Amino acid sequence: MAPNPLSVPCLEKAPEVFDDEYDEPTGPATIAETLEAIRENRPLAEQNLALLRDWIAKHPHIGSCRTDARFLLRFLRSKKHSFLAASQTLERYLAARALHPAWFQRLDIRDPELADLTDVGFLYALKEHDANGCLVALCDWGLIDTKRYTLDHSNRMHALLLEAYGEDTLAQCAGAIIIFDFRHVQLAHHSIVSLSVLRQLARYINNAVPIRCQGIHAVNVPAGAMWILNGLISFLNEKIRSRFSISRDYDELAEKIDRNILPKEYGGKEPKSEHIRAFREQCERYRDRLLAMDEMAIDLDHSEPYSRQAMLDDIEGGAVGSFRKLELD
């Protein structure tokens, strides 16, 4: 039975009534420490939600954007409730969606390409969070068919996962971990990767992704594929680089990740097919919301300093965008 689809939040930048309000996060025994680490408390969260909504309403180039709490808290929590950092990230996120439609448009699990990549086990979220509440995803990168797909398809799959789980309150607070398995990488996979694309991807990750990166783990990496990892990691910021590790195999990875939450094929409890099934159901449940997000818009085609090229430089360089030109009451 297909999961019930969720309703689509309002995309008006200044609605008369907002779709939802702040909910208190709950989770594992470590949730109190997590909330302290991201400086979350209800009064501050509600204050920042109000500020962010006012900022969106007054932004001269944002045409439409979700303003519900579940969406905006992604940015506030990922930036430890710094309003300035959250608004900059939101601005870059909207610009990235406009600049890279091949990554973000029509994130539909029913799309034949995304469905195929899901079915072969290219990328999926694990059914259980880790003990600290982190969302854990596994990418078997060598399973991408290089005769059919490019790095844009890989990026699109990662965008699908991030958006499908973007409203997961626990993941918003605790963060996410991704495991890259390189066991199936062959020489043909090197042909779809370039340092210029890795640089572009890394700078988007550094400056426009509303998620707390708690770990990037590579496993079963052949010597010939090390240049891909070294290239990507060299472009990531120091904080994310410090959370990167390489493991020879899943036995070594088990020293860093609870093996019980992994697929049975890698020493866990449930078979990979069950994790993929749960991932498909999550994507199906959020399908209408993900498709509606294609309607969010930011105008980058004008001659002001805040323009398409300026915003591209902003995303890649991490500079402040148009925020300082805006005023709040």
Automatic annotation (TrEMBL):
<dbReference type="GO" id="GO:1902936">
    <property type="term" value="F:phosphatidylinositol bisphosphate binding"/>
</dbReference>
<dbReference type="InterPro" id="IPR036273">
    <property type="entry name" value="CRAL/TRIO_N_dom_sf"/>
</dbReference>
<dbReference type="InterPro" id="IPR036865">
    <property type="entry name" value="CRAL-TRIO_dom_sf"/>
</dbReference>
<dbReference type="GO" id="GO:0016020">
    <property type="term" value="C:membrane"/>
</dbReference>
<protein>
    <recommendedName>
        <fullName>CRAL-TRIO domain-containing protein</fullName>
    </recommendedName>
</protein>
<feature type="domain" description="CRAL-TRIO">
    <location>
        <begin position="110"/>
        <end position="274"/>
    </location>
</feature>
<dbReference type="Pfam" id="PF00650">
    <property type="entry name" value="CRAL_TRIO"/>
</dbReference>
<dbReference type="InterPro" id="IPR001251">
    <property type="entry name" value="CRAL-TRIO_dom"/>
</dbReference>
